[in-house]
Design goal:
single chain, 205 residues, 9 helices, elongated, membrane
């Protein structure tokens, strides 16, 4: 599995370089150096673009768990958790369970845990949100590990208002759209929505 994923990551990086007419870099430097540079630039660019949208609109399009999502979308793009379906549905589940936990424990108008500290109600909200997120992702078959962080971001009071949910999900959609463009430019059959059961985890070199 490791070798096949390494081959896929190399195809992704070299494919983008070829599209940009920079294939000489893949011949000049080692695979490890090229992949490290690709992750540096692509990961930074992904978050920078979303952050710029947040800056222009003054809305919270950017939140911590998107960093983990970006890594998955570009590091193992054909894995099931990296599919648009899992990414979008996973974060949506995390956000909704976080909001549910806030209201259940009466914390929807309370200061965040970062500002006011952690009490028993916050412990309950955090535990319930994460537990429910994992449970629902399994039941709905949409596992996406960074969604657990989204549940905690909401239940800890960092994004506590229902009106923030559309903005949060817009950030997820922006990142998925970029993953689709970058992976397709590299010649990787990144899915429009759901990973086909017949699609291999890697592609031939």
């Amino acid at each position: 599995m490791g070798v096949r994923n390494d081959r896929l990551r190399w195809q992704q990086a070299s494919g983008v370089l070829r599209t940009l007419h920079l294939e000489r870099l893949s011949r000049r430097y080692s695979h490890k150096t090229v992949l490290a540079g690709f992750n540096l630039i692509n990961g930074g660019l992904s978050i920078a673009l979303i952050s710029l949208v947040a800056l222009v609109t003054q809305q919270a399009f950017i939140f911590p768990s998107l960093g983990a999502t970006a890594f998955i979308l570009f590091h193992v793009p054909l894995a099931e958790p990296a599919s648009p379906r899992n990414t979008v549905c996973g974060h949506l589940v995390g956000a909704l369970t976080g909001l549910f936990s806030l209201y259940l424990f009466g914390l929807h108008n309370a200061p965040s845990a970062m500002a006011a500290g952690v009490d028993l109600a916050r412990v309950g909200a955090a535990a319930l949100s994460l537990g429910m997120t994992g449970c629902l992702m399994v039941l709905l078959r949409v596992p996406h590990p960074p969604a657990g962080a989204t549940a905690l971001i909401v239940s800890l009071g960092l994004m506590p208002h229902p009106a923030q949910l559309p903005v949060l999900m817009a950030g997820v959609f922006l990142l998925v759209a970029q993953a689709f463009v970058i992976n397709r430019l590299a010649g990787i059959p990144y899915p429009l929505w759901r990973r086909s059961s017949e699609l291999p985890l890697s592609v031939p070199s």
